[in-house]
Amino acid sequence: MANENVSVWTSIPFWRRSAAWVTGFATILLIWLTFDTLGQISMGTDADLKNGVKKRVPAPTVINYHIDYKMDAKRGHEVPVIGEKQLFFGKEWSEKEAAELLHLGKLTSQAKNCMNCHTLLGNGAYYAPDLTKAWLDPAWQKGGPLQAMTGKNTVEEAMAEFLQHPSQYPTHARMMPDLGITAEEAKGLVAFLKHMSSIDTNGFPRNFSKTVEQFKTGGTNAH
Ligand code: HEC
Asked: Staple 48 to which of 53, 63, 147, 165, CB 3.0 to 4.6 Å?
């Protein structure tokens, strides 16, 4: 009989069934991945911070805490570690104030198009340093060259001063132009940068810790 010799690979019903199964499986997988991602990227709450619950994207009130960047041996890269309470621009910010400040910073970063030159969370350009972890850059900390050049005593004040008058602080051959950023907008931007540095980005940008090592051994890190 002719039918007995038909190979399964040339059988139309076989391919039709396979297509239906593959489509069905992929649909379920995509739905599952969507919900899993939403869970991973949803912002934590102030209560999470107080109770030490770790979220990839912490609440805006994370600006009230010291943020460290430590090697996680198991994961093989650095992760942000939220530490002790720390005043931000000389005060502790309520949930509402922190959310508003962060919102102002985000809007300003869009209005002034920081991404045109910098990269934020993997999006943007590499004309200027990646800003994802800029807050953690030792050059902005006490004793670091960037903080020293502004004559300020805290990371936030130094960064805010730089952002308002970058052309007064040539740190590199390529200079950042003055973008007409006000004092209030600069505060918002610094909150935005501090919050962004507290996000667990699986060790991205990859070269950040390498540049930090360079800094520790005597070079400057900003670039
Ligand atoms: C036209 C390009 C351009 C735009 C737009 C721009 N920057 Fe910059 N930025 C630079 C350059 C170039 C540097 C390096 C400056 C230097 O080394 O003197 C820099 C440096 C910085 C630094 C210091 C880098 C470090 O390692 O910490 C910060 C912070 C920063 N920019 C934030 C911002 C923010 C926030 C915005 C948006 C409001 C922005 N920049 C928009 C070009 C730009």
From this structure: 53
Find tokens 């508003």 and name the residue: 100
Q: What is the pLDDT of residues 180-201, one digit of tens each?
A: 999 999 999 999 999 999 999 9
- Same domain? For 105 and 187 the reply is yes
Between CA 133 and CA 21 the distance in angstroms is 43
Asked whether 223 lines ligand 1 (CB < 6 A), one says: yes
Give tens-digit pLDDT for 138-182. Answer: 999 999 989 999 999 999 999 999 999 999 987 777 889 999 999
The answer to whether position 14 is within a domain reads yes
* 32 and 108 inside one domain: no
The answer to whether residue 223 is domain-embedded is no
pTM: 0.87
The verdict on the CB of residue 138 being under 6 Å from ligand 1 is no
Ligand 1 centroid to Cα of residue 56, in Å, is 25
Domain boundaries, position 29: 2-39
